[in-house]
Design goal:
Layout lengths: L2 H8 L3 H12 L4 H9 L7 E7 L5 H14 L4 E7 L10 H6 L9 E7 L4 H17 L4 E7 L3 H8 L3 E6 L7 H11 L2 E4 L7 H13 L11 E3 L8 H18 L1 H26 L2 H10 L5 H10 L2
Parallel strand pairs: 1-4, 1-5, 2-3, 2-4, 5-6, 6-7
The structure holds guanosine-5'-diphosphate and magnesium ion.
The site of magnesium ion has 4 residues, from helix 4.
């Protein structure tokens, strides 16, 4: 990207931003230079991850949260990471409906990303898209992702606050709890609280949270919401702001940032080293000896090849 284009990205041009995101999504070789050029300019946006089962109402909550952040004059970027979606670039049809009223707002940027290839790549690309939005002056970034194991965890490592969205029926689904949801959540929303059972699930979660070891002085709140009826949303919004303040005051936010930085350096190093290591000769050896010898022996042979 030429300097002029980078400058218009930093000045907040939507066109420049869309072009920059496409470079990153396509894993273009020019993307790295671009990301490097904008690196000294992040405004340290507040990054919130919203995760939970499909249909829990994440997009509907995001829509409500955007409204509140806009009321306090924050510019909002939304990155929806859906590994099951075949679509990419632009928004999913459903989300267009759910967040429709914000599409014409210049100070709201909504983007969907789908998987292409492996999950780790998706997580790091969504972080990089976050960096672009940050550089373009979006002070709040909402990452929506469905709760499906590794991808979700990768994306959640890239945020300041993790909001886990459940529905009243999730109580039966003990699997969810086992999947480490108690560990990753900073805030819980029990959405669709207009339906039966929200109170029961809230008590269950609160019991489980009471057994959780102290997480640096933050008491994980459980809020009952109804996104469609616009109930409990001011409370939920308030909890997010409180968690943000807690991160800043306790120094935990700074530590998260350092950890994120370290992991990104590690992943850069790993991808460079691997890129250099897999010469055509080594690749050929792998393919030609597949299953002829034990994987351990083949690995040794490949490592010893020079
Ligand atoms: N009854 C009820 N329905 C809701 C609520 N929030 C969202 N929905 C509906 O649930 C469906 C899925 O919502 P969506 O936001 O797309 O869920 P996502 O897959 O988690 O992003 C939509 O039909 C919404 O209108 C709520 O609080 N109560
Ligand atoms: Mg959604």
């Amino acid at each position: 990207m030429p300097d002029a284009a980078i400058q218009s990205l930093l000045d907040g041009s939507g066109k420049a931003l869309a072009a920059a995101i496409s470079l990153v999504e396509d894993e273009s070789s020019r993307a790295e230079a671009l990301l490097e050029a904008i690196y000294p300019h992040p405004g340290s946006a507040y990054r919130i991850g919203i995760t939970g089962p499909p249909g829990a109402g994440k997009s509907s909550l995001v829509d409500q949260l955007i409204t509140r952040f806009r009321q306090s004059d924050r510019r909002v970027g939304v990155i929806s990471v859906d590994p099951t979606s075949p679509f990419t670039g632009g928004a999913l049809l459903g989300d267009r409906l759910r967040m429709g009223r914000h599409y014409r707002d210049r100070d709201v940027f909504i983007r969907s990303m789908a998987t292409r290839g492996h999950s780790g790549g998706l997580a790091s690309r969504s972080q990089e898209v976050g960096d672009l939005l940050d550089a373009a002056g979006f002070g709040v970034l909402l990452f929506e992702t469905i709760g499906v194991g590794q991808i979700e965890l990768d994306v959640m490592e890239a945020v300041d606050t993790t909001l886990v969205v459940l529905v009243p029926e999730s109580g039966d689904d003990i699997q969810l709890m086992k999947a480490g949801i108690i560990e990753i959540a900073d805030v819980f929303a029990i959405n669709k609280a207009d339906r039966e059972g929200a109170g029961r699930l809230a008590s269950l979660l609160e019991q489980m949270l009471a057994m959780k070891p102290d997480a640096g002085g933050w008491q994980v709140p459980v809020e009952k919401t109804s996104a469609t009826r616009n109930e409990g949303l001011d409370e939920l919004y308030g909890r997010l702001l409180e968690h943000h303040a807690h991160l800043q005051e306790s120094g935990a936010g700074r530590r998260k940032q350092e950890q994120r930085y370290r992991r990104r350096v590690e992943s850069q190093v790993a991808s460079q080293v691997m890129g250099k290591f897999w010469t055509p000769a080594r690749g050929h050896l792998l393919e030609s000896r597949l299953e002829a010898v034990s994987p351990y022996e083949l690995a040794r042979t490949i490592l010893e090849l020079d």
